[in-house]
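Practice problem 4.
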């Protein structure tokens, strides 16, 4: 695993919640809990997010907050034209598990993992055909700055694909989901991961995050065009996509 460039340190700055340390703690049980708490739907969500990428032409992709690499692996499976990827994350423990899975899956020649902060990473501007982020943007202390960083990394015409939890629109589904999120998720999370805080943080951060329409508006304000939000599984997650306009600079 490669250490990030000059912007990197073991303790990245300006985080309101020590997210890297939190994910280091829960890394050993992260994948199991992720699949269990989403009732296995997370596989299909990542597959669907991966399919937003074009099928033609060699693609270079950055996956921010890559964690244990599941979105990267879905991308490499679904899109053989993804020839080169960089997976970036704050948590070394998550990356270590990701590296093992990537090596076991035979994808290592197309993946480089970097320990760095998505908010101010050392990756070069305008270098990527696509930038992806699954369940990561909600954890960053400045969502707008993260979107600006995603835009900076993209080539003009490149696409951003962001998968993030959301709340169902329908009142009944929303009520059921909130009961699940507030009571069941923290209890199972604490039991299996040993971290009460992490899974309490999960439900609080989901409830505090932008509604899909507001997030689309934020993407437009940050300079993305052709912005869309696709709800999956009654809207408990949404896949956002947006393009960096052709002719746009790196700022
Ligand atoms: C919920 S996990 C998602 C991991 C993976 N993308 C997935 O689909 O399972 C969130 C990840 O975001 C990372 N993360 C949070 N804030 C970050 C930041 N500012 N820069 C880089 N990674 C960050 C955490 O370390 C953690 O691995």
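Answer key:
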């Amino acid at each position: 695993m490669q250490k990030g460039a000059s912007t990197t340190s073991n303790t990245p700055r300006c985080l309101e919640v020590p997210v890297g340390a939190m994910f280091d703690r829960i890394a050993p049980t992260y994948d199991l809990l992720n699949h269990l708490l989403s009732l296995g739907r997370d596989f299909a969500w990542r597959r669907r997010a991966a399919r937003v990428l074009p099928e033609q032409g060699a693609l270079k992709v950055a996956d921010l907050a890559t964690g244990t690499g599941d979105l990267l692996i879905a991308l490499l499976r679904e899109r053989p034209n993804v020839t080169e990827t960089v997976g970036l994350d704050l948590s070394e423990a998550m990356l270590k598990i990701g590296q093992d899975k990537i090596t076991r899956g035979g994808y290592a020649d197309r993946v480089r993992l970097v320990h760095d902060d998505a908010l101010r990473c050392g990756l070069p501007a305008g270098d990527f055909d696509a930038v992806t982020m699954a369940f990561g943007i909600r954890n960053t202390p400045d969502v707008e700055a993260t979107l600006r960083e995603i835009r900076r990394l993209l080539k003009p015409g490149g696409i951003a694909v962001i998968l993030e939890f959301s709340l169902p629109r329908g009142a009944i589904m929303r009520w059921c989901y909130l009961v699940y999120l507030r009571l069941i998720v923290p209890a199972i999370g604490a039991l299996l991961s040993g971290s009460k805080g992490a899974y309490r943080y999960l439900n609080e951060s989901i409830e505090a995050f932008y509604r899909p329409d507001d997030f689309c508006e934020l993407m437009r304000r940050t300079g993305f065009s052709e912005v869309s939000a696709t709800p999956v599984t009654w809207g408990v997650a949404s896949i956002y996509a947006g393009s960096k306009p052709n002719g746009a600079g790196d700022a």
